[in-house]
Amino acid sequence: MSKKDNIYADQLEQVESFNFDQKVVEVFPDMIKRSVPGYTSIIDGIGQLAKKYAQPHSSIYDLGCSLGAATLSIREAVNDKTSKIIAVDNSKAMIERCTLIQSGYNFAMPVDVIEADISDLKFENASFVVLNFTLQFLPRDQRQTLLNNIYQGMNPGGALVLSEKLTMGSTSLDHNIIDIHHDFKKQNGYSDMEIAQKRAALENVLIPDTREQHYQRFVKAGFSQFDTWFQHYNFASFIVVK
């Protein structure tokens, strides 16, 4: 059972850069539920989108899988034992817990849980790829290359689901939406100090892009169909089809 996220509840002498370590693993479901508006809807939607786009005898990738919520949604929605999910994360702590969680379910679709850097992967026979709040943690100069690699390894008719925190088009609008997001976190029990310390920890770790920057990358990679299928405040998810 997930513990309550109180990582930033006490005043810290020095706020270290955010890291997906063991203490985050222990509270991650609570953290994500209280921090990301619409997260449950996105996870449910990923399963439904997989039903539309996942192809038999293909590979499905969950990149930056954390505890494997998207993987479970796909396995539950797509009853196909001929395809396989490859769930990848570079956090040893996340991978160990994800492996344990996945082993507790008896869905038809098999899954390989792998500790690796997603930038080093070679994508093959991919019909469905998930980047659920993952790309924003990669250095900006690596993002286009990853999307290019995904496109090159994707089957015709395959799809990518990319969920990200967005930067709004104007500075004033961006500040106002961020304020609303902070109010959302307060309503979920986070204090002003927790919000401030978490924001400091994520500075230079989570670097969001505008919607237009994402769309430009999709075009450059070669994708011809894409749109926003979900948005709540400054958190959005895109469907991108080859």
From TrEMBL:
What EC number(s) does this enzyme carry? 2.1.3.-
HAMAP family listed in its UniProt record: Cx_SAM_synthase (MF_01589)
Q: Name one Pfam family in it.
A: Methyltransf_25
Which residues are S-adenosyl-L-methionine-binding?
Y39, G64, C65, S66, D89, N90, D117, I118, N132, R199
Q: What's this protein's name?
A: Carboxy-S-adenosyl-L-methionine synthase
User: Subunit info?
Assistant: Homodimer.
Identify the residues that the record assigns to the Methyltransferase domain, covering every copy: 60-158
| Family from the record | Belongs to the class I-like SAM-binding methyltransferase superfamily. Cx-SAM synthase family.
What PANTHER family does the database record attribute to this sequence?
CARBOXY-S-ADENOSYL-L-METHIONINE SYNTHASE, TRANS-ACONITATE 2-METHYLTRANSFERASE-RELATED
**Keywords of the record:** S-adenosyl-L-methionine, Transferase
Name its species. Kangiella marina
Enzymatic reactions = prephenate + S-adenosyl-L-methionine = carboxy-S-adenosyl-L-methionine + 3-phenylpyruvate + H2O
What does this gene product do? Catalyzes the conversion of S-adenosyl-L-methionine (SAM) to carboxy-S-adenosyl-L-methionine (Cx-SAM).
Secreted among the record's keywords? no
